[in-house]
Specification:
The structure holds three protein chains of three kinds. By secondary structure, chain A is an alpha/beta fold. Chain A has 15 helices and five strands. The model of chain A has no long low-confidence stretch (mean pLDDT about 85). Helices cover about 65% and strands about 10% of the residues of chain B. A four-stranded mixed sheet of chain B has the order 2-1-3-4, with helices on both faces. The model of chain B has no long low-confidence stretch (mean pLDDT about 80). Classes of the chains: A alpha/beta, B alpha/beta, C alpha/beta.
């Protein structure tokens, strides 16, 4: 029987690599997404435009403006000369942030009084604008501190020194790429398990399989294993690109990474088989895959942290294999996870796999008898 | 150039046929109504970029008052979920496992140093760099908390508080800065892309696969009639879905719509035109449902999510990719959506982006028209 | 206005697809107001020719004129005069009969009172008046074809192009379709009817016999049949194994073709009157030759160069089929009160039969009769609602996989892995049935040799010509030496010679003790079986040997009737006895 399983797997792989077109479909999306995502998926703020309305003219304001201009985050500055222009610059989204330095700013500073600068933030892009505001605030605060008298300094005797573990420069890419190992492999594995089965049903070869000595269990395995293999293949490509092209550090162990990818692939295959057992044809299977993937990616913690989600959605996120895979893979890449640290994220994957595969199996059995 | 001839009766008959098929096919209903609402909810509640309670661990090695006071201040913050611990190594383990996102160490010399005021006391903050956004937030937020606490102390002690010149934020549009308000309108563009491209990519390919296209081609229908009969019913379906989305967004998700609904309607129509055009083009060219759907996903959905500016800021991307984003209709639509919902009718933005959408719609629809076969071997 | 005698003129028409020649230089003329049959197996170019007539394809060479118009350049003027019914109906399954008709009426600008009249006319013509509100997808095969025809006729076309309109349709509906079309032709409409069934072609006024893109014959069927006069004979009253006798007969150089027809053998002589030596045939003392009327299939085989011999290289390679001695030899395959219900629809209604070892048993009936459902239950693919089905005494629904290892299965439309090549398919199917290593490699090589698959080893299965698909499917079904074979519509659309070859293999296998169960809607194929059961509306309305059934249906004093006629009469009789 083992040989029969090998035959099934070989057939599946042959079918996947049968035409140049299908090979392209396996590799191209991976490469495309590898090229685009790490650059596109960033919540950093760079290349922003800052608008400055300097109603003052004094030394302090000029110093601050110079420092802002020198900041990496604000390569472009627009100098504003009037209130209507300020309004327009934000309304028309020409600048992310506008700073208004009031008339008596420098004078106030020089006599040691508190003065306020106003920052106008475009709430339509509130997230980026807030981050930009954060940068600007830092620069202003730094300046103010430098101007402070010793007496004033005495009232500020403490400083926070920040050390960012695992990713000292808070490089966004170090966060994105390990997550991509899980995300990009999702669609490939699901296509193999969900869609190929639906296609076999439509072409009639599925019947041939059912009539043969193969049991439904073997047939399912014969789809799940190629799915996992595809996931491992694509995962390897992405992991290699991450380490060698994008210079992401890899502090964990390779075998652990593969173990995680295997468990993830298993759980994905479970979902894929579950989807295909419910769907009658390819079109429905495709919609099913899409309907699974979009919430899975959104609720995985990749786009926004899970702790920000409402409780109900956090429960859903816990049932999402992508969530666990991302935590584990990030840990292996950046935090030097050992097996005991990875295991808490692996057993949920195995549990999900067990549940979905069992349900799929039961539906399979029932439907092939109908 | 002569106008393409359109026999109204033929067109109506074909549209009627298409409409019956839509209504009687459960998957179309699923795509047009169930999927968008589900996605809206997930986008609306799932992606929350506003910091909630961040789990922060505090190790107080100091016994002094000052340390305790500061810790109290932190405990009172609505943005932090404090966990106290005794051991640095244990906390660090928790940090590694992701149970806490940051760790603050108040060393044993904290309180004395503060009292002596001879040198600056250091508070060490360790963050989980694997979550850059949260780490960033913790860094700046805690520094801010520290300053506030120190000012309070200074005032309590009767000292002259520092001329802390500050920079104060004022929000235009979306004053509550609820990230949902800027995310959800943008997400409508993703949803409309799905509907437009996915639905139609299946439609024409299905006719080819079922053989009904052949029978149609042998009648007197013209290319234009065929094309219009595919576009119009799906346009109506798409706009109904869009209206549903807007209703859910404004009434259930509580996102304000400050602009005019009719402008939204018109701009959405233009965007839908692009989406339908792209989907129909793929459907026409591939004549195979599966390939069409896959390509639609990659060519339409992914760019709409990643490169449209709805979550990820375009200006932060490398120039090459920014250039690519100019080709994506979703980018222009997201701009308009964000403005219309949160700001109102700012004509400059609306007209500029609509112009691009119009060009895009014409391009894709035109391409489809060219590729629509009038014979089997076209 | 004097109309030309010819509605369609074709001159040196060529058409190529992807470098393949679909049509290689056809020249002919189609008479107006007649029914012209385009006849030939799948892949012969029938559909291509019709599509060229309809203006759906542009010929790569040559010239075609329909009603004096160029179908491409003058499409606007031609289309209103054409009615075209493609192979897949062209009906919208989600729309009701009424809605389909309305759509096509709108598209050919048929309005108002004229529309109402035409609708009434067509609905009663096709007997669909009571079904106007039923979705087209829920109609039976025959009704769908009639509806398709009705939609095509709405525009009152002058030329009617029908692409295989009778595929799979029950014989009664087929007769009705013919009647309708005959009336239309009588009224002056030129009808082109394409088919792969040669018996149907005999009823046309003219036939175009096509094979591999070439026109082999053009003219009234009577002409070509007359040319075969004296060359068709039957060998009757044989004693002994008819298959063995057939094999011997086919060895004779005087015979170019032979098939089993009930208890007799139907043979085609190379030269009229030149009979083989009876004494050498071991057919028994009562055996004798009888002249019979030639049919179109005889002529077609003759044109194609004669049928294959009687030797099955395949069967020679197979060992004697072994069955466990404990199994009842009379009921190797058995169905008992087998019933399957889908919701309210009874697909299989209390069907009973037993198949003996080494016998070919056929389930005969049109599409939708319930054959496939019954068949699937026998194979264990479907669970019966009540009753049971057993193979080798085991209920396959509960059987261990080793029981299934004894089955060979050929699915409808030859379910093969389209994107894998021939070699990969063979390796796959042998692999899942447990062959491996050297034995597997040898078996696969054997199959390639036997079926001449060598030139196609690296070709993707989906692009194989139909005949080779069938060969591949058969080889995949038997590599594991199953003692029982299930064949679901195994010869759909294949050319007559390939069909003969196929049955030669099957006969050879049966000689080695294999038990075969086959389903078909092709009435003539029933003659190759030892016994058949006629399935109609899910029920067995008659069962027995082909000759027994013919006798049941034959009226007093009548000569031999065809299987199709037998079917129709038995069905009608059954209809009358129902309450």
């Amino acid at each position: 029987m083992f040989n029969a399983l090998l035959t099934l797997i070989r057939k599946e792989l042959q079918a996947l690599f049968s035409t140049p077109e299908s090979i392209r479909m396996l590799i191209m999306p991976v490469i495309l997404q590898l090229l685009v995502f790490p650059f596109a998926a960033t919540l950093e703020v760079k290349n922003s435009t800052l608008a400055i309305y300097n109603q003052d003219g004094g030394a302090a304001s000029i110093e601050i403006i110079q420092r802002l201009a020198a900041a990496k985050a604000f390569p472009k500055l627009i100098m504003i000369t009037g209130e209507p222009q300020l309004q327009q610059v934000i309304d028309h989204q020409q600048a992310l942030l506008a700073i208004r330095i009031p008339q008596d700013f420098s004078r106030q500073i020089s006599i040691g009084r508190a003065a306020k600068i106003e920052a106008v933030i475009d709430g339509r892009r509130s997230n980026s604008a807030q981050i930009a505001y954060g940068y600007a605030a830092q620069i202003v605060t730094q300046y103010v501190l430098e101007q402070a008298t010793p007496a004033q300094l005495q009232t500020m005797p403490a400083q926070v020194t920040v050390q960012n573990l695992y990713n000292p420069n808070l490089e966004y890419r170090w966060f994105v790429l390990p997550s991509l190992v899980a995300i990009i492999t999702t669609i490939g594995c699901l296509m193999v398990t969900a869609l190929s089965l639906a296609r076999e049903r439509e072409e009639g070869t599925f019947e041939q399989l059912l009539v043969s000595p193969l049991t439904p269990g073997y047939i399912m395995l014969g789809k799940a294993i190629p799915g996992i293999l595809v996931a491992l293949l694509q995962g390897t490509i992405i992991a290699a690109a991450a380490v060698f092209v994008y210079q992401i550090p890899f502090t964990g162990q390779v075998w652990l990474l593969y173990l995680t990818m295997f468990c993830y692939g298993l759980s994905l295959s479970g979902f894929g088989l579950l989807i295909s057992s419910i769907c009658a044809n390819q079109q429905q299977a495709f919609l099913g895959v899409f309907g699974f993937m979009s919430p899975a990616v959104i609720l995985s913690g990749y786009m926004a942290p899970i702790e920000n989600m409402p409780a109900a959605l956090q429960v859903v996120a816990a049932m999402n294999p992508l969530t666990h895979a991302i935590i584990a893979i990030k840990g292996i890449f950046l935090k030097g996870f050992t097996f005991s640290q990875t295991w808490p994220h692996l057993w949920p994957l195995l549990l999900i796999a067990a549940v979905t595969l069992s349900i799929a199996y039961f539906i399979f059995i029932r439907r092939s008898g109908q | 150039m002569t106008l393409p001839k359109v026999n109204l009766r033929h067109l109506l008959a074909l549209c009627k046929k298409e409409s019956y098929q839509i209504v009687r096919d459960p998957s179309s209903i699923l795509i047009a109504f169930v999927l968008p609402v589900m996605l809206l909810f997930i986008f609306g509640f799932g992606i929350n970029l506003d910091t909630n309670k961040v789990r922060l661990g505090i190790v107080t090695e100091d016994q002094g008052n000052e340390a305790e006071q500061f810790a109290q201040v932190l405990r009172g913050s609505p943005y932090l979920d404090i966990q106290t611990g005794n051991s640095r190594s244990q906390m660090q383990q928790q940090l590694q496992l992701g149970e806490i996102r940051g760790m603050l160490v108040l060393a044993s010399d904290f309180s004395p140093t503060i009292r002596k005021q001879q040198k600056t006391a250091a508070i060490q903050l360790l963050t989980d760099g694997a979550e850059p956004n949260t780490a960033n937030f913790l860094g700046s937020y805690l520094q801010g908390c520290l300053e506030v606490w120190q000012q309070q102390r200074a005032t309590d002690q009767g000292l002259n508080s520092v001329a802390t010149s500050t920079i104060e934020p004022r929000y235009w549009f979306n004053p509550t800065t609820v990230s949902r308000n800027f995310l959800v309108p943008g997400s409508i563009s993703v949803i409309m892309t799905v509907i437009g491209a996915l639905l139609t990519s299946l439609v024409v390919a299905r006719e080819w696969e079922r053989g009904t296209m052949e029978a149609l081609l042998s009648t007197s229908v013209t290319k234009t009639e065929l094309l219009l009969s595919k576009i119009l019913p799906y346009y109506v379906l798409g706009m109904v879905a869009m209206t549903l989305c807007v209703l859910v967004t404004t009434l259930i998700l509580d996102v304000p719509l400050r602009g005019s609904f009719w402008i939204l309607f018109i701009v959405s129509s233009l965007f839908l035109g692009s989406g339908l055009g792209l989907g129909l083009f793929l459907s026409t060219v591939t004549r195979n449902q599966f390939a069409a759907a896959q390509t639609a996903l990659i060519a339409a959905f992914l760019p709409a999510t990643m490169l449209s500016g709805f979550v990820f800021e375009i200006s932060s991307m490398p120039i090459a990719i920014q250039g690519v984003s100019y080709l994506i209709p979703a980018r222009y639509f997201v701009n308009v959506l964000q403005t219309l919902f949160q700001a109102g009718d700012i004509w400059y933005i609306i007209l500029l982006n609509s112009a691009f959408l119009l060009v895009s719609a014409c391009f894709w629809l035109g391409l489809t028209a060219m590729k629509t076969a009038r014979r089997l071997d076209d | 206005m004097i109309q030309a005698a010819y509605a369609i003129r074709i001159t040196d028409l060529r058409h190529q697809f992807d470098g393949r020649d679909a049509l290689s230089g056809i020249s002919t003329q189609i008479r107006r107001g007649k029914i012209t049959g385009i006849v030939g197996p799948d892949g012969s170019g029938k559909t291509t020719l019709i599509r060229l007539m309809a203006g759906l394809l542009k010929a790569t060479g040559g010239n075609i004129q329909v009603e004096e118009l160029d179908p491409i350049a003058e499409a606007g003027r031609l289309r209103p005069q054409l009615g075209y019914m493609p192979q897949k109906f062209g009906l919208y399954e989600d729309l009701t009969v009424q809605e389909n008709l309305t759509l096509y009426a709108d598209l050919c600008d048929l309005l108002g009172e004229k529309r109402r009249q035409r609708f009434d006319q067509l609905l009663s013509f096709t007997d669909l008046t009571h079904f106007i509100d039923r979705p087209a997808g829920k109609l039976s095969g025959g009704m769908k074809q009639k509806l398709g025809l009705a939609c095509t006729l709405l525009g009152s076309p002058k030329v009617l192009l029908l692409d295989e309109p009778s595929v799979g349709v029950d014989p009664i509906s087929r007769r009705e379709l013919w009647k309708m079309v005959g009336e239309l032709a009588h009224g002056g409409i030129t009808v082109i009817w394409s088919t792969s069934y040669l018996d149907e072609a005999e009823l046309c006024d003219d036939v175009l016999l096509m094979s591999e893109g070439l026109l082999k014959f053009n003219g009234p069927p009577t002409t070509i049949i007359a040319g075969m006069n004296g060359r068709s004979v039957q060998l009757r009253d044989m004693t002994g194994n008819k298959r063995a006798i057939l094999k011997k007969v086919l060895h004779s150089p005087k015979i170019i073709d032979g098939v089993i027809q009930g208890h007799a053998l139907r043979l085609v002589l190379k030269t009229a009157g030149d009979l083989p030596d009876l004494a050498q045939l071991d057919a028994g003392s009562a055996a004798h030759f009888v002249d019979v009327k030639p049919c179109l299939e005889d002529a077609f085989i003759d044109i194609l160069g004669g049928g294959p011999g009687g030797e099955s290289v395949l069967a020679d390679h197979m060992p004697i089929a072994r069955l466990d001695g404990s199994i009842d030899q009379d009921a190797v395959i058995e169905a008992h009160q087998l019933t399957r219900v889908f919701g309210e629809f009874v697909a299989t209604d209390h069907v009973d039969f037993k198949v003996r070892r080494g016998e070919i048993f056929g389930l005969l009936g049109p599409n939708g009769a319930g054959k496939s459902t019954t068949f699937k239950m026998m194979c264990g693919l479907l669970r019966p609602t009540s009753g049971w089905a057993k193979v080798m005494g085991i209920d396959l629904k509960q059987s261990a996989s080793h029981a299934r290892a004894q089955l060979g299965y050929m699915a409808q439309k030859f379910a093969l892995y389209g994107n894998l090549n021939v070699q990969q398919n063979l390796m796959f199917f042998s692999g899942i049935y447990g062959l491996r290593g050297k034995a597997q490699a040898e078996m696969v090589a054997d199959m390639v040799r036997v079926f001449n698959l060598e030139p196609y080893l690296n070709t993707q299965a989906s692009t194989l010509p139909l005949g080779f698909k069938q060969r591949l499917a058969l080889s995949c079904a038997i590599m594991h030496h199953p003692p029982i074979l299930f064949l679901d519509e195994p010869t759909s659309g294949v050319d007559p010679i390939t069909r003969r070859e196929f049955w030669t293999h099957i006969n050879g296998l049966v000689e080695k003790g294999v038990t075969v169960m086959v389903t078909t809607h092709f009435m003539d194929e029933a003659e190759y079986c030892d016994r058949i059961a006629i399935i109609y509306h899910g029920r067995t309305i008659a069962s027995g040997t082909p000759d027994e059934l013919k006798q049941m249906a034959t009226e007093a004093g009548e000569a031999d009737i065809t299987m199709e006629e037998t079917f129709i009469r038995l069905v009608e009789r059954d209809d009358r006895t129902k309450p």
